[in-house]
Design a protein that fits this description.
single chain; mainly alpha; Globin-like
Length: about 130
Amino acid sequence: MVKDSWEKVMPISEKAAKIFYARLFELKPAFKSLFKHDMKEQGRKLMAMLTTAVNSLDNLADIIVPVQEMGRRHAAYGVKEDDYETVGEALIWTLEKILGDSWTDELEDAWTETYITLAGFMTDAAREVTTA
């Protein structure tokens, strides 16, 4: 389900990234200060990372190390563990808006589980940085 729905997002990935960051900054305006570079490029990176994650759902072992590294980098940027909840909220909201009528409770559950799994890898790795 996650893979099928992501196929619908990919053709409008630039718009999706824009919607995501607008929602993220609406939920937590302080996040804007974490993004000092070109937001269009940041959006491309986000979509590429999500595409890799979605494509690896059948074999998470392939992405655990890169996702953990990303979690460590985010910790170094000042991202806190509870910030992941806001990011997840913005992601789910964005997907719901983009997918419209094809968004169901079941799809929301699948995406939520996917996000929680990936965020878990990131936060576990980030804890290594913050407790070291």
